[in-house]
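ARCHIVE RECORD
Type: protein–small molecule complex
Small molecule: S-adenosyl-L-homocysteine
Source of inputs: curated submission
Record status: active
Notes field left blank by submitter.
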Amino acid sequence: MDDAEAERACEDLVAHLRTAGEITSDRVAEAVGAVPRHEFVDDSDRERAYEDRPFDVGHDQVVTAPRLVARTSELLEVAPGDDVLEVGTGSGYHAAVLAELAGPEDVVTVERRPDLAERARRVLDRTGYGGVSVIVGDGSRGLPGVAPFDRISVAAAAPDVPSPLRDQLRDPGRLVLPLGPREGPHELALFEKRNGAFDRSRHGKAQYVPLIGAHGFDE
Ligand code: SAH
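STRUCTURE (tokenized, with ligand):
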């Protein structure tokens, strides 16, 4: 897939996500339209990179399907300059979309698997998102040294919001996390912190890998 083909495929993907109701704002359309998804998948998947489906990198499905990246990004309502934490870097694709929305320097993403973090670091550098911070660690603990955050995007499923993440969210602030048991089914949930309250709303079925860590599932 050459650059022109990728650009066309990416435009088609954005149009599809708009029709499907997953993209509702111009900002998210522009962000998804700007990130070269074919750079984030394995070479063998490049030709199919703009299909609305997840991909494996290594052994797991760690490149989230575009519809869920779009839905999460819409729910988060990221503004330029927001401090954003992503838990579960995987390929780095969603981190790049968040970087388009907030600005690369304002996004920090945590991945528990060092091999994936290193791979994502390389791809983000190569695609112009070198400002994003990629940290190896247990994101279920959040990042106490960097907190608080205006927006938190959790890309792995958990039965509830890890308490450190709840504490590290600013007021007002928004957090999106797939809720559910280890193997699913999962449901995307938006948590809004406002005037000390923490409200939850549900936003459709989803399938994610489990959040593994001190405030998630056992390894
Ligand atoms: N956002 C990614 C998809 C991530 S898939 C993308 O756009 O491609 C979920 C990732 O969360 C996996 O890479 C998994 O290794 C990671 N993960 C699971 N538990 C974690 C934890 N406690 N802290 C950090 N990363 C975790």
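CURATOR ANNOTATION: Residues 100 and 109 are 14 Å apart (CA to CA).
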